[in-house]
Design brief:
mainly beta; Immunoglobulin-like; 2 domains; nine-stranded mixed sheet; 4 helices
Length: 287
């Protein structure tokens, strides 16, 4: 059975999540019990396969597929074929650990990916990370959150489609670092990480003139890179630009509740944060 998500953006609205993907991933796999007595198999209420051995013990093996498209944030086009999309279990990050890799796939033509063998329903969400498969240095690792409600009802063999995983090229990452340096920021994405998003209305249209709350300094992107992405002349941009997708960036984003203000709109709050070396992408959507 295929579950189609409610479009690209609804799975990104909120996520109580403290960190992005690190380069550390745990080994994942399917557990089962094998003995000489030909175990019996049936479906349990979680959709996993339950195997019973002669001691009465049971184990549940869940396996489903995540499908979607990898998209380049700078070009608004599909991401390059040959990149990897990794599905991370975010639960460990909530207690200060590293997200655990569950499964991965290679981006195909048209940005399409299909990650089979996802073996858990994390309580705090899944992170879809677009990254180089072998650290070739062509992209900055990213993390796109997927809400637990997106996969709460899946059972073994199901496919969730219509997901998005966002990619940041190394060139765009360098442009971000250069633009931050131009306005006096001393760090880099590689050392500090960042939270990135857009401020959009409930049709996912960029909102002009919005400001983000939850951080002391927020960098708002414009369309003129000649003087840096985040400044006009020598002055920091003070609000979002719809022409630039209403994108904002918060380097070294602390775990906090982030929201926005804009005339004529109301917003809820998203609990988010970032970790070194990667960019978490999560838009702020008006009610």
């Amino acid at each position: 059975m295929t579950h189609t998500s409610l479009g690209i953006w609804p799975g990104l609205l909120t996520l109580a999540l403290v960190a992005a993907c690190s380069d550390k991933g745990g080994e994942s796999g399917t557990t089962g019990v094998t003995d000489d007595t030909a175990p019996t198999t049936n479906n349990d209420d979680t959709g996993g396969t339950t195997t019973t051995d002669d001691t009465g013990g049971t184990t549940t093996a869940l396996s489903y597929t995540l499908e979607g498209q990898a998209l380049d944030l700078a070009t608004h086009d599909v991401a390059a074929a040959g990149l990897c999309v990794v599905a991370f279990n975010a639960d460990a990050a909530v207690t200060g650990g590293d997200p655990v890799e569950m499964a991965r796939a290679t981006v195909a033509a048209g940005g399409v990916f299909s990650i089979s063998g996802v073996d858990a329903k994390p309580a705090f969400g899944i992170l879809l990370s677009v990254r180089d498969c072998n650290d070739e240095g062509t992209v900055v690792p990213t993390a796109t959150p997927v809400l637990p409600s997106t996969y709460s009802s899946v059972v073994t063999g199901n496919t969730i489609s219509g997901l998005a995983a966002f990619s940041v090229s190394a060139a765009f990452g360098a442009g971000i670092d250069g633009s931050l340096a131009a306005v006096g920021y001393p760090g880099t994405i590689a050392t500090d990480g960042a939270l990135m998003g857009g401020v959009w209305d409930n049709t996912y249209t960029p909102i002009d003139g919005a400001t983000v709350t939850g951080a002391t300094t927020v960098f708002y992107q414009d369309t003129d890179s000649a003087d840096g992405l985040y400044s006009t002349g020598t002055s920091l941009n003070a609000a979002t630009s719809a022409a630039a997708g209403s994108l904002f960036l918060i380097p070294a984003a602390a775990v906090s509740t982030y929201s926005a203000t804009a005339e004529g709109y109301t917003f809820g709050g998203n609990t988010l944060g970032s970790s070194p070396g990667s960019i978490v992408f999560a838009p702020i959507i008006a009610n």
